[in-house]
Here is the input.
Amino acid sequence: MATKTIELPELTRKEAELVEELRQCYGNDFRMICRLADFKTGEYDRYNLLRRSMRWSELCEEDGDRITAAITNGYTIEKSPEDKLREYYGDLVRKEIALERAGNSGSQFRQGYMSVESTLDILGITIPGVNAPAETEE
Here is the structure.
């Protein structure tokens, strides 16, 4: 029998936080999906709290199917622009270090990450791990 790979939907950080908040409210995935169906069809029961229905509207404005798949199968969280830049910056630094250790010049990568730092400084943007000390989790 062939194995089918399920591609996990990608949620924004805000969507993922809302899914987890609603999971706490409803207690399990089945109840969440039932409430999502109620919301999408407009069939609210009298116990459906306004706050929860407002949270569903934030979550389901675009694509209820994607949210349902995320509740059922899990999800990944979309990288923020800062995360993407931090990853790009880190790749440049690692490539420069690897070339220097091998006895070669990594100046093109050094110029690349220094340009990133300079651009952020000129724009007045601070990103921990790029042009400011990385934040440490305690």
